[in-house]
Amino acid sequence: MFIVAMATIKEVARRARVSAGTVSNVLSGAIPVSERLKQRVLEAVRELDYHPNHVARSLKLRQTKMLGLVVSDITNPFFPQMVRGAEDAAWKHNYILITFNSDDRQDRERQLLSALRTRRVDGILLVAAATEGDLSHIQCVMEAGIPIVAVDRALESLQVDCLTVDNIAGAQECVHHLIERGHRRIGIITGPPHLPVARDRLEGYQRALAAAGLPFDAAFVRDGAFRAEGGYQAALELLSEVRPTAIFTSNAVMALGVLRALNEMDLESPRDVAVATFDDPPFAEAVRPQLTSVAQPSYDLGYKGVEILLRRIHEPNRKRVSQVLKTELKIRASTEPRTSAMEHDWRHTSAMG
Amino acid sequence: MFIVAMATIKEVARRARVSAGTVSNVLSGAIPVSERLKQRVLEAVRELDYHPNHVARSLKLRQTKMLGLVVSDITNPFFPQMVRGAEDAAWKHNYILITFNSDDRQDRERQLLSALRTRRVDGILLVAAATEGDLSHIQCVMEAGIPIVAVDRALESLQVDCLTVDNIAGAQECVHHLIERGHRRIGIITGPPHLPVARDRLEGYQRALAAAGLPFDAAFVRDGAFRAEGGYQAALELLSEVRPTAIFTSNAVMALGVLRALNEMDLESPRDVAVATFDDPPFAEAVRPQLTSVAQPSYDLGYKGVEILLRRIHEPNRKRVSQVLKTELKIRASTEPRTSAMEHDWRHTSAMG
DNA sequence: GTGCGGATCTGAATCGATTCACATTCCGGA
DNA sequence: TCCGGAATGTGAATCGATTCAGATCCGCAC
Fold it and tell me: Percentage of chain B with pLDDT > 70?
C-alpha cells in the first residue's frame, strides 16, 4: 500500500527552524510567540499544506470533539431535519457528528454504543430503541463517563437529560380540532404500543375525546406500526368496519398509507373522510388534499439536543434537565368542514355497516 | 471537570499479570497466546469493562477507519436513502461515517474537506457542490493521499472514481413515455443549469423529443432550482403561458411544487395535465394522483460508493473506475392516458392562449 | 560590568495501543 | 544430560500533538 504521508508538526518545526512546541503555540495561540518566528512557522505551514493530526491531538487531550448520534432510521422523513439540526449545532461548536441507524433494535443499539465508546466520542445523542426494560447498555456508557442526552424519547428511569416533544398535547390539540369540525367517529392509527411516543399520542387522542365528553371505543384504535403499509392496512380495516368520519394517524408515513387506502376504496378526503396526522413532512403540503398535521420542531430537537449535550459535557455535575418542546397544529384542506349533506350520507351508510 | 477514566490496556495487563503486548495479542488474535493467559486477560477485560481506545490505535496504525460523506443537504429526500446505504456498507466493513451537509456551497465544502483531512479520515465520499471550475480544494485532498469517490455527480476533470446515475437515459425514457401517451406539448422544469445532473436531464428530454421528431421549444423549459418553491413558480408560468399537456420535473421536490400549483389553478392530473418526475421518493405512491417517476438507485449509490472507496483505499493504484447506475421508470396514475375528448378540449384552449 | 525579571523557546514526557527484537520456557531427540 | 528450536511472553520504541519545567536571551537598573 502506497502511502503519501502528510506533514507532521515536527516537519513544520524543522522547516521553520523552531521546536515543535513553538509551532503548537503559534497555531493554538495560547502562548505568545514573537512575530519573527510566527511568520516563519505560518509560512512553513502554508508550504507544507500542514493539517494538524487531530487523532494525536485527541489522544493527548483526551477529548475527540466527536459526538455520536443514534437515530432509528434516517430514511424515516422525521429524522433528516433532526440530524441536520444536530449537525449544524455540532459544527458551530467545532464538533463533528457520527451518525448511526439503530432500526429501533436494541441489539444493534448496544453495538453502536459500544463502537461509539471505543471511539471515545465526547457525548451521545440518543433516540432510544426502547425506553423501558433492560437499559443496562445505556447505563454502562454513562458510567464510563460519556454523557448521553435522550432525544425524542425520554428515558425516565435513567439519570439522563431528555429533550422531547409534547406528544400528548400535540395529539390532543389535533383531535380536538377534528371534534370541533363536527367529527364524532374518529379513528386513530397508532404506532407500536411499546413506544411511549405512540402511547402518548393515543393518550392525547383519548384526552381530547374525554374533554369533549365523547366515549372512547377501542374499535376505533388500530396499530399501524409507524409504517406506510401498516397505515394502509389499518385504514382499510377502519373504513370497512367502524366507518370513521375522520382518521388521525400517529405519524406521517402511516398517513401516506391512509391516502393510498382512500384512493383504492374510491373515497375522497375531506369529502368522505377527514385525515390528520402527527408529523409535518414536506409532502404534507403537496398531497391532495393537503394534510392537516401536527408539526414537530424536529430541527430544534437536534439543534437543542446537541446544545444540551455540550453543556453537560462542560458541566458534568449540572442538574439533570428535561425539556419538552411544543408542537404546532397546521390546519389544511384534509380536515376542511364537510357539508351537512355529506355528513348525513355517511351517518346513514355507517348505520348500515 | 470530573473525569471518569476508562480502563487502559496497561490496567488490563496489570490485572491479568501479563504485559500490554500480550493483551493486545489476545484481543487482536494476530499472535497466539496460551489458553491460560488468554483466559486471565479476557476476565480482566470483562471485569474492567475494557473498551480499547480507538484513538490511540488510529494514531499508531495511521488509519482511522472513518470515512467522510459530504452531501448537499440531508433534508433533501433524495439523500437519506443514499446516506443509509453508505452507512450500512461502512458499518459492514467496520468503518464509521462522518456525514456533512455542504448546501452545495463551495466555500463550505472547502471547510468540510479540510476538517475531514485534519481528522485523518481514510477516504471521502463526495457529492460535489460544483463539478467544474476551481476544484483545487478537492485536488489537494487527493494529493494528500486521501481517496475520494465522486457520487451522484461526476468529476470528469479530476482523477477520481465516479459513481453516477444515467440521468440522460432516465429522463429520455420518461419523456418518451409521455410522448407515447400522446403528449406533444411537454414542459420541463429543470434544476440549476450549472449542475450537470440538471443539464443531463434536460438533455434526455431533448433527445426524447428529437427521437420522436418533435421540435424543441425553449419556452417549454423552466428552471425550478431543484426546489419546491421553484417548481411551483415554474409550473404556474408554464401552465398560464405555453399550456403544456404534460410536465416533467427534474427532481421530486419540484414535482411537489407542481402539484401545489395544479391544486391552486384547479387543474387535475392526469385529466388536465400529466405529471412525471425524476426521483422516486416514498410520497410518490401516496400523493393523488400517484406520480409516474424515474427511480434512482439512491441506496445503491451510497452502498456501492463506499465499496468503491474501500477498494480504492486498499488498492491505491487501481485503474480509475467510473460506474453508471441505471434508473427505473415507474409508471403510475399521473400519466394515465387522457380521453380524446379532454385532449381536444385542451388543444382548443391552448390555441386561444 | 553584573544581576535580575520577564519574555521566549526548547526538549522531553505524555496520551494508549501496536509491534518487533529479544528473552524465556519447554519439548523431544541425541 | 544437554542442545536446538519452536512456542510463548516481555518491554521498549513508536505514532503526532500538547504542555511544562527549565534554558536562553534581552534590556535595563545599579
Answer: 94
